[in-house]
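Project standup — Tuesday

K.O.: blocked on the structure for the chain from last sprint. Re-posting the sequence here as requested.
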Amino acid sequence: MSKNIFILLLILTKTNLYAADKLSESIFAKNKIKVNGFNEQQKKITIETFQKIYNINPQKLKVNNKIYNEYSNFEKLFQFKINGPNLLHWMLKRMKSLNYVNTWTVATNDGAGNISIGDEFFISTELEKMYILIHEARHSDYGGFTHVPCPDNFPFISVGQPEFVLKSAPGCDKTTTGSYAYQAAFLYEVFAYQLFENYTEAGYLYNSTVSRILPLHDYESNKVYSDENISFIFNKKNEIIKKLNNFQDIYFFKIWETENAIAYSSEKNEGARYTMIFYKNEKDAIISYKAKANRTQAVFMIAGIVVFCPYGDNKSLFKKLYSILAGMGVALK
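H.V.: unblocked you, prediction finished:
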């Protein structure tokens, strides 16, 4: 065998290494996962789902790098770049037991790694099964990351469970690091790398999933206030503006100032600008927010800062502000 052919075979072997390892029922015992109530077909479906995850081996990114960097959160959340073996290992170590329970729900986790799976799971699509298990695995971390009621004005539906009314039901997350965030992060990688033939389904499911992460949106339940003195934020306004301007895709400048407030704008064009108003006290901030909340522009408030967004928060200003304030030691809830 020539040296070139040997190298080619070695490359091909490495490229398909993940697919070469076939998982079996022993994966449960090896990972000390108890399986209760599953019939043989249900075990087979679960193992096939594990195998599908294990085989993930991203090659060429199918979206623009700038777009990918804007939306991808996988490495930030999981602490590794997406690949099948690491993802499966991450998931399995968060599972203590898999239990068949014929209930209305697809799957639940008691917060300690004991996952109950219903009939709906086994008739879900392959992609749905994968993100469901990833979602439930995250519930094993740090007290479970329990869901919170969706707002009364929540406008979205559950595509997977159309009979389930999400308004005021515990189907949303109050944090950007909960199960829906991990689910969304996985789905975006599937979409961006076109990991499966149905990658467009992943794109739609990503949008649906992100709608459940309340801090990314302008719902009444997503008004984030600070436990710190609001005057601290007000006095740090110049530092906050400087950090925002360092993102380079948006630039703020001061447009007006009063005794109790100061406003910054991102553009001179009235119809397409962000406006941020810093208040010295929470009372004035809340009054201002409530007076402006019915405008056609999206409005949110975080730590006493009232923000108007052009055509929605398309530059993810909420996430940037949240990150900056948290980095400054501001306690957010």
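K.O.: great, moving the ticket to review. The longest helix spans residues 40-54. The chain has two domains: 15-216, 223-327.
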